[in-house]
Amino acid sequence: MGLYDIPIRTLAGEESSLAPYRGRALLLVNVASRCGLTPQYAGLEALHERYGERAFAVLGFPCNQFMGQEPGSPAEIAAFCSATYAVTFPLFEKIDVNGRDRHPLYQELTRIPDGDGVAGDVAWNFEKFLVSPEGRVVARFRPQVEPDDPALVEAVESQLAS
């Protein structure tokens, strides 16, 4: 099963998948509202806006697995992201990214190693996976890598339509 075929729900609870994003470069990020890295929402939104016209999208996946830093309901998450960071990129259902209940999407993503060659569990909130327009995971960036980090920006640009 490819990434585009894995069922997932939107933050509003509607059945979905990544299929509507086929042909776009994607940055998939597990997000949280009460984390020291939460200000990365601003940089993620800036990337989404900067490259959206060039077949790119940031997709957020709330996760409460790291010290309970995403405890909110879907409505609370949506309100926080909108009011605090003016987030317009799509948010999906709150999921587990590690462990026995790891979402199937993250079962696929976590097989990919980071720049140091390390695959496996997501380290913390705001880990980033870059997916090519063809649906291949082409890069993994650990949580401390900011959205405006030159290596991340270069990797995104390498996947964009001219």
Which residues sit in consecutive blocks of at least 5 with pLDDT less than 50? none
Q: Which strands sit side by side, in order, in the main sheet?
A: 4-3-5-6
CA-based gyration radius: 14 Å
Mean pLDDT across the residues is: 97
Q: Could you describe the largest sheet, including whether it forms a barrel?
A: 4 strands, mixed
Give your account of this protein's structure:
Strand 3, helix 1 and strand 4 form a beta-alpha-beta unit. Helix content is 24%, strand content 17%. With 162 residues, the chain is an alpha+beta fold. The protein has a single domain, classed as Glutaredoxin (3-Layer(aba) Sandwich), CATH 3.40.30. The strands form two sheets. The protein has a four-stranded mixed sheet, with helices on one face. The protein is built from four helices and six strands, in the order βββαβααββα.
Helix-strand blueprint:
Layout: E1 8-9, E2 15-16, E3 25-31, H1 40-51, E4 56-62, H2 74-85, H3 104-109, E5 128-131, E6 137-141, H4 150-158
Parallel strand pairs: 3-4
Antiparallel strand pairs: 1-2, 3-5, 5-6
What labels would you give this structure?
four-stranded mixed β-sheet, two-stranded antiparallel ribbon, single chain, alpha+beta, Glutaredoxin, 17% strand, 162 residues, 4 helices
Tell me briefly what this model is.
With 162 residues, this protein is an alpha+beta fold.
